[in-house]
Amino acid sequence: MFPKNAWYVACTPDEIADKPLGRMVCGERIVFYRPRAGEVAALEDFCPHRGAPLSLGFVADGRLVCGYHGLEMGCDGRTVAMPAQRVRGFPCIRSFPVVERYGFIWVWPGEADKADPALIHHLEWADNPEWAYGGGLYHINCDYRLMVDNLMDLTHETYVHSTSIGQKEIDEAPPVTTVEGDTVITARHMENVQAPPFWRAALRANELADDVPVDRWQICRFTPPSHVLIEVGVAHAGHGGYHADPKYKASSIVVDFITPETETSIWYFWGMARHFKPQDAALTATIREGQGKIFAEDLEMLEQQQRNLLAYPERRLLKLNIDAGGVQSRRILDRLIAAEQQPAGETVPA
Amino acid sequence: MFPKNAWYVACTPDEIADKPLGRMVCGERIVFYRPRAGEVAALEDFCPHRGAPLSLGFVADGRLVCGYHGLEMGCDGRTVAMPAQRVRGFPCIRSFPVVERYGFIWVWPGEADKADPALIHHLEWADNPEWAYGGGLYHINCDYRLMVDNLMDLTHETYVHSTSIGQKEIDEAPPVTTVEGDTVITARHMENVQAPPFWRAALRANELADDVPVDRWQICRFTPPSHVLIEVGVAHAGHGGYHADPKYKASSIVVDFITPETETSIWYFWGMARHFKPQDAALTATIREGQGKIFAEDLEMLEQQQRNLLAYPERRLLKLNIDAGGVQSRRILDRLIAAEQQPAGETVPA
Amino acid sequence: MFPKNAWYVACTPDEIADKPLGRMVCGERIVFYRPRAGEVAALEDFCPHRGAPLSLGFVADGRLVCGYHGLEMGCDGRTVAMPAQRVRGFPCIRSFPVVERYGFIWVWPGEADKADPALIHHLEWADNPEWAYGGGLYHINCDYRLMVDNLMDLTHETYVHSTSIGQKEIDEAPPVTTVEGDTVITARHMENVQAPPFWRAALRANELADDVPVDRWQICRFTPPSHVLIEVGVAHAGHGGYHADPKYKASSIVVDFITPETETSIWYFWGMARHFKPQDAALTATIREGQGKIFAEDLEMLEQQQRNLLAYPERRLLKLNIDAGGVQSRRILDRLIAAEQQPAGETVPA
């Protein structure tokens, strides 16, 4: 169960640089490709001739050419040509609204007429040269909501990521969850603690002492359908924490775009945007590599959790205060999904 | 859906040279073996004692000995002996009509009393020393009819095999499909074209110039249940094409025996018979290697096409003129399958 | 179908030496761990917080700490603590009776109140320093009863293990099966035969001539739920066989603990206990390696037999005299399983 009338990250530009990409998003088999430089298109990955996957084809003159018998498909899902054939009566395939923005390709797997690019929320860090971004992609066999839970409850860092970003004080600092419209915010502040290894390295990269007590914060923001952006950072203790002057701080935004593939698998786009030394490509690579290792630690846990939940579907899970972020996020998702399933004209009470 | 009252290629002799072979054909688990030199037998791969696969056993004195507890099975499916046991009351297992001919082992998975070896159609190239043959075997996860379609519509060569046997002119030469009884013939002739790389090599092997225009032909013949033999070749242009004198020609027969394993998987026996330099074993090996690479290019396409068709079972595919060969072949198959399912005594209108 | 009110071997101590072990036994997902040195515990592998597998966690202060969010679980299935949480109302998870004995961890997957450790039958060889034991573990995709059949009918040695322990005379010596309560005994004695390779090596290890005729015996004992212990050995011929003086003998006990994972897969704990040279660790290693290779020969046969039986569920298998051990064992199992499914208070006629 996922909202289909929503923008999801489908892929990154490098994935369609050389040839079309076949990828399932929200249960839809889709081919993503560049009809021309700077353009992007998304179609059902199904040739109307004999059902071959169009993603095994190639692009020529702005058309997606089927790699089986040469049918030439337009970006709108209408066949433009086919060698020695009249194609006027060929059935159309579905085209999906698709937008390139902020360094990602976004797709709308639901009703095309509702797809307004303005609904992609603004990502300051992606457009501003004072920021740098690095990230990656994991395929994980779990319900996308398990990953939302994971990211909205960072107490797991103490256990899953104990050698890098975890620390005992996370557990001890109660998180505060608030809901603003369709945004869920879970914030946690730790004062006067030792920075864990990842953050000591970040302090050094920021030319700050790494052996003094710090104030640390984690502010997780869920927005539908399944995006979690987390402001994280440390400041030398006593300078105002999250609000401290930049000269005392190392901070960044953990970026998580979670795209359902099926009901029990996801494409997980993870990354980090930082507000310091944006030109330092080596630093970007180092952070990306470190984050990749840390985030890989979640995979086995999430996949085995998913298997447990499938094996015991009737069990009720606990909803503790630390789970409030995930619980509130699911409530919003349930409402959006119910609204989509409603006949047109009816409304669902919030 | 496949005809069961038909001869299918089960394996090649080398596959049963050293020990029995277990292979599923048309959904039947069958063990193939040589009871004695020059003989071949095919039985259900199921020991009547405890259900062990007989294909894990061995042959002794003309009997297939179960590798679990030593039951000795005769070629007729009757247990001959078992250590320290009286076997008279043992249940029989099914034996399948099986014939070795033309360098292949042929099996009849349907009603044994209808299995007439004379129904195996004559293969001139297999018996005549003026011909040489080389081939191989691929396992592919697709309905056998998708492979029939593939072979009866060679426009795919332009796209799937663009670097070897494909060329634009294939698309441009309209194929002509005719039906003669249960045989479907799709023929295509291209005149005054450049030979693609595979055929240039064949011209050279034939001691013919490879840099002059040629006439090229492809004559695909489908015969039930799922055999497609394709006469292919090139002749120096203007000498009569298909009918040209051999001294201007390089030609051969592409051999395709497609044996269903299950509804969605096949054993694909592919090869090439050539009418020139039959003694040149090195040439046979070279052609075989080249053909193996070319035919491997179809695998991913067919398997992904199959997955698409399973995902969208309700979609109607197009039946263009280029698809006529496959469409007519399926029509014959449908008729044969319906006839098999008919109660005895009734007939199905053609 | 397996009895659940029974002691099964779950694992060996080395498997839980460093960290918890997640293993499915009789369809139950269980985590095994050492709360403290010398203790062992078994719980549902399901954290009551969010369903994470507890087996990915760690042990601290006698508690099993969930590796996801730090819930601390007691050996009784009650949550003891969780960072910053009150846990009194947390739902319990199931704890399983578990005992360490004879070098194995035993678990009772059924009703806990019926789990009497006294029901684990005495294993003389495991407690007595005059014996040495070596063994291993295989995972096999077959119904546990197929392995019981395998071990209660050693005629398969002639075929499956023809190069090591098999010999023609096994087939020729009729086995005698007797039932004593819930124990099934199948015994076979061969007189004045050549020892096969494995036993020749054992004779040499025992400082006995290996090139003289021997008497050989195999006495298989099945006890529920699925343990098969087999007394095996050879003695120089004419000295009384099984009853011969130890100075003429090489003998041991083949140990087989078969633990169902699912209806069609098992954890197979195999090993050999010997009554000679118990201090010779190198000999233990050599025998273990040899036995491991021999027992691996059964895997493919059992897995393919299982696949055949699933494909032809309606077929009746033969029950010959050599199968009597397996048949009688299944009869006892059927009775035990029926008794478990009986409403309390009713009894099942034996």
TrEMBL record, chains A, B, C:
UniProt superkingdom: Bacteria
UniProt KW keywords: 2Fe-2S, Iron, Iron-sulfur, Metal-binding, Methyltransferase, Monooxygenase, Oxidoreductase, Transferase
GO MF assignments: 2 iron, 2 sulfur cluster binding; iron ion binding; methyltransferase activity; monooxygenase activity
Pfam family, one: VanA_C
Annotated ranges, domain Rieske: 7-107
UniProt xrefs under Gene3D superfamilies: Naphthalene 1,2-dioxygenase Alpha Subunit, Chain A, domain 1 (3.90.380.10), Rieske [2Fe-2S] iron-sulphur domain (2.102.10.10)
GO BP field: methylation
Keyword Flavoprotein: no
PROSITE patterns in the cross-refs: RIESKE, RING_HYDROXYL_ALPHA
Protein name: Vanillate O-demethylase monooxygenase subunit
